[in-house]
Amino acid sequence: MKQPVIKNIFRYIKPYSFYIVTAAVPAFISVLLALYIPVLTGQSVDLVIGAGNVDFGGILPIIIKMILAVVLSSVFTWVMNYSANKITFNSVRDIRSDFYKKLNSLPLSYIDSTSHGDIISRITVDTEQISDGMQQFLTQFLTGVITIIGTIAFMLSINFKIALVVIFITPLSLFAAAFITKISRVQFTEQSKVRGELSSLIVEAVEGSKAIKAFSFEKRAEEKFTGINSRLFKCGVKSQFYSALANPTTRYINGLVYAFVGIIGALSIVNGTSVMTVGSIASFLSYANQYTKPFNEITGVITELQSAFACARRVFAVMEETPEPSDENCMDITDSDGSVEISNASFSYNKKIPFIENLNLYVKKGQRIAVVGPTGCGKTTLINLLMRFYDVTDGSICIDEKHIDIRSIKRDSLRKLYGMVLQDTWVFKGSVRENIAYGNPGASIDKIIEASKAVHAHGFIKKLPDGYDTILSKDGGNLSGGEKQLISIARIMLMNPPMLILDEATSNIDSRTEQRVQKAFKALMRGKTCFIIAHRLSTIKDADIILVMRGGVIAEKGTHEELLNNRGFYHELFNAQFEQTSGHFNE
Length: 587
Fold this sequence. Notes:
This protein has about 575 residues and is of the alpha/beta class. Helix content is about 65%, strand content about 10%. The strands form three sheets. The chain has a six-stranded mixed β-sheet, sandwiched between helices. The radius of gyration is 36 Å and the shape is elongated.
C-alpha cells in the first residue's frame, strides 16, 4: 500500500529523533538570543537621545550583553545546523540503502521494463534533491517558525494594537505563496520526470558510444538529446519562474507591513497617544522586520520542498513496487544430482500474448543439452525459467532425483547450483583475482590459478602489469573481449557447480583459443548437467540432446545426426550456416 510522501520521509527521520531535539532546542535558544538584541538596541537608543547627554556608563553593559548574545546565538546556530545535517545525511543514506536493497528484491521483469538511466537518476539525483529539501526544512523552516512565534510575543509585549496590525496583514503573503506553490508543483513534477529521461538517454549513449560512432549516429543522437534537454529547460524555467514569484511577492507584502508599523508608531508618538519611546519604536520595527523575514525564507524553502517532494515520489514509487514473492519459507539445497524435469510449463512476458506453452523436457544427470533456434524462439527464456529469474505461470520445473519443484527452493540456494557464462561478459572494477573469485570469495590463490590454467587464461594474466593483482577498469576496458570471456569462464571453473548454463560462452574468443577452451569445458562438464545455448551449430555436435526451439515450443529434439537425418528445421539451420562458411553442403 502506497504511503504519503511526508509519512515515508518521517519514517526515515524517526530513528534520529535525538538529533531533532538537539536541533530544535538550540534553534529555540538561538532565536531567543537573536530576538533579545532588538530590546538591547531600543534601550541603547533611549540612552543616547533620552536626556540630551549620552549615558556611556549605561551603554557599555548593553554592548557587552549584545556581544554575548551574538556569540551564544552563533554557537547554538552551529549546533542546530550540525544536528540538522546529521538527520539529513543519515536519513538520505538510509533511503539510498533501502532503495538499493529494494532494487535487488524486485523481479527481473521490472528491471527489464524500466530504463536503467532513470533508475540511476532516482538513486543519485533524486535522493540528493531530497537531502537539499530536508536540510532547508530543518534549518530555515524550523528557525523561521520559532522566529515568527518569538517576534509575535515580543511585539505584543511592546504594543498590543500595532502588533495585531502586523499579525493580521502578514498572512496575505502566505496566501500569495500558497497560490504560487500550487502552480509550480506541477512543473517540478514534470521537471523530475524529464530529468530521468535525460539521464536514461545519457547512460544509453555512453554504453552504446561505439555503436553510435560505428553507424555515424552522432548527429541524430545529439538531436534526440537536444529535444529532451530543451523540454527539461522549458519545464525548469517554468518551475523556477513560478516559484521565484513567491519570494518577491511576500517581500512586497512584508515591506508594506514594515511601512505601516513605522507610520503608525511615529504618528502615535507625535500625537502623544502612546507611551512608546523612540527606542521601543526602533525595537518594534526591528521585530516587524524579523517577523516578516522568515516568511520570505519559508517561501524560498517551499521551492526546495516542491522539488524534493517531486523527487521523493519518484524514489518511493520504486520502493513501493511489488517485490519478488518471498521465499523465506522455502528450503535450502546445497547439492543436486543435476537431473531436471520440465512438465507442461507455460510462460508469457505479456499475459495477452502467449509465448511458451506446454513445454515438456526431461534431462538426466550429466547430460549435455543444446538449445538452438532463431532469435526470439525462447532459448534465453528457458534459461530464465531454470534460474527462477522468472517463474512459470503453469506447470512445473523440478530438479534432482527427489523431484523437487524449484519454486519450493530459495532462489539464492537454487542459483548456486548453476554456473552461468553469458554471451555478454561482465567484469567489475577490481583485481583479476577478485573477478575470478566473485562466486567463491574465500578461494585461495592456488585454486584461482588452477581454474585460470584450465581455461587457458593464466598465460595472458601473468603478462598483465601486476598479474592476478592487476586492477581492471570499469567493464574490463583494459582487456580484449576474449580475455574478459576467459575470466568469466575461469569464474565458473572455480565454483565447480553441479549444473552449467553456457549462453554462447565462446562467442568472443578466436578460433584457436576456442579450441583450447572447448577442451577445458569438456573436462568441466564431465558428470555435470549442461545447458548450452548456441548459434554456431558446429559447436554442439557432441551434445547428448539438441532442442530445436521455434515460437516458444520444442519443434525438434534429438542428436545432431538424428536431426540432420530428419531433414527438418534443424537441417535447414545447419545447411544455411554451412553454406555461409563453406559455400556448399555435402552430407
